[in-house]
Design goal:
- The chain is α/β, with parallel strands linked by helices and 205 residues long.
- It has four helices and eight strands, in the order E-H-E-E-E-H-E-H-E-H-E-E.
- Helix content is 26%, strand content 17%.
- The strands form two sheets. It has a five-stranded mixed sheet, with helices on one face. A three-stranded mixed sheet has the order 1-2-4.
- A hairpin with a 2-residue loop joins strand 7 and strand 8 (183-189).
- The two termini are 21 Å apart.
- The model is unreliable at 6-10 (pLDDT under 50).
Length: 205
């Protein structure tokens, strides 16, 4: 298994045409080479996360091609309404999962690398929404907040927060992503659940 990266100076639209013509739907690709319409805050490439540790060498968002295609389609719907997706995490190599497990060996917070997670399969994204000014919508809790308040079914939230979470979930599920009940930010592409756990890392430039 390998990553596919196009280094042409062409537009993201041409990248997409070139890459799609070559790559299979389970090939790992770099999202930024397919679209410039996303915002990035890759938390695990910094110490600004619940681990308080930088576990990625650099901030990149790699995903399976089919996940990228579904994510772009969802983002287009958000763009029509004046919003866009902001990404916190994408594909996570298994070695990184093991590093996270060493720091926090608790399955309530980190998936056991012995089983692997959908992040290790390139089919999961951790996201929120931002408005046209880049301001995050109020989702009630920060990303990676592990209290009950982060759950989709938690009742004691303001109407605004409930509407924001519902808006995010509605568009994502329309594009074949499934939410995680306990984490408002986490979405899995349903067709990626059977893909293999991967451990290939991307190059940092």
């Amino acid at each position: 298994m390998s990553f596919y990266s196009c280094k042409s100076q062409s537009s993201p639209e041409i990248y997409k045409e070139q890459q799609t013509a070559i790559a299979e739907d389970t090939t790992f690709v770099n999202l930024k080479e397919y679209s410039t319409d996303f915002v990035y805050d890759m938390k695990y490439a910094t110490e600004d996360n619940f681990l308080k540790a930088k576990v990625y060498d650099c901030a990149e968002c790699y995903l399976r091609l089919k996940t990228v295609q579904a994510l772009i389609a969802a983002n287009k719907e958000f763009l029509k309404k004046g919003y866009r997706i902001k990404l916190f995490d994408c594909y996570r190599p298994l070695a990184i999962q093991k590093s996270m497990w060493k720091i926090v060996p608790n399955p309530e917070y980190v998936a056991d690398p012995a089983k692997g997670s959908i992040h290790n399969r390139g089919g999961a994204v951790d996201i929120t929404l931002v408005d046209k000014n880049g301001k995050e919508l109020d989702m009630g809790t920060p990303f990676d907040f592990f209290g009950v308040e982060a759950g989709h079914n938690y009742p004691n939230l303001s109407k605004k927060v409930k509407n924001n979470r519902s808006f995010l979930k509605k568009i994502m599920t329309q594009h074949n992503f499934k939410s995680l009940d306990s984490e408002w930010w986490h979405y899995n592409l349903q067709s990626a659940l059977k893909d293999k756990v991967a451990n290939t890392k991307w190059d940092c430039e």
